[in-house]
Amino acid sequence: MAGASVPVLVALGLLGLVGGVGITAVGPGGVLPTIGLFALTGLTPAQVAGTAIVTHVATGMLATAAYTRSGQLREPGTRRTALVLAVSAVAGTPLGVLVNSYVSKRMFGLVLGVFVAGVAGLVWFREHRRPAGSRAHPPTAVVAGMGCAVAVAAGVVGIGGPMLTVPLLVALGVPVLESLASAQAQSVVIAGVGTVGYLAQGAVDWPLAVLVGVPELAGVLLGWRIAHALPTRHLKYALITTLLALAPYLALHG
């Protein structure tokens, strides 16, 4: 964090706050700190991913506790989905951390840009998809495969998991709040395993992790309240617009 200007530090803190809101209100959002660390600092791809992913340990735990309190994670089907996602993350996350070590800064920017654009498309699809007639959760094999793939991607770019998992679960017919709850539990495992992997490489900037992570925690609580109290349609469209606007910049920034 040494040498960073005050506006940059403020911007990183704000991105942490907004990212936290997005994590629990709509799912996608956790990538915003990663974007800020990549675009506004001189960190390497491993340091960007490692510093970002460590913040999701606390946010994932807080969000899991919040959705347990509100009842979603007490429902057997949601609990089963969350458990399968968490177990599959143990296998997928180390592979993502390993892949990151072979990624140049230019390639990291390109991957992050494509990733961000893809997530914006998933959120748009989720918003325009008709609600599923059935509230049943997908088969275990489907959830496990999806969870492992998400964990690999999350390990590469340094996110928790809800960013991809929530839109995918909703597309499979799982209700939004149940999808959000399941993804938070997965996020704890992805972030925990990813943190161990990046710590082994010495790729975590702790001052920046605190700067981003503390506002992110506040945003998680705010986003959880928003998800339960208000229609999030406008927030979703704002997120889609922001992600689509940022994608080309990220792809070229590297």
TrEMBL record:
Compartments (UniProt record): Cell membrane; Membrane
Mode of membrane association: Multi-pass membrane protein
Keywords assigned by UniProt, alphabetized: Cell membrane, Membrane, Transmembrane, Transmembrane helix
InterPro entries: TM_pro_TauE-like, TSUP/Inactive_protease-like
Entries under Pfam families matching the protein: TauE
Gene Ontology cellular-component annotations: plasma membrane
Signal peptide: none
Source organism superkingdom: Bacteria
Transmembrane segments: 48-68, 80-101, 107-125, 146-170, 206-227, 234-252
Family per record: Belongs to the 4-toluene sulfonate uptake permease (TSUP) (TC 2.A.102) family.
Name listed for the protein in its UniProt record: Probable membrane transporter protein
Annotated organism of origin: Streptomyces lividans 1326
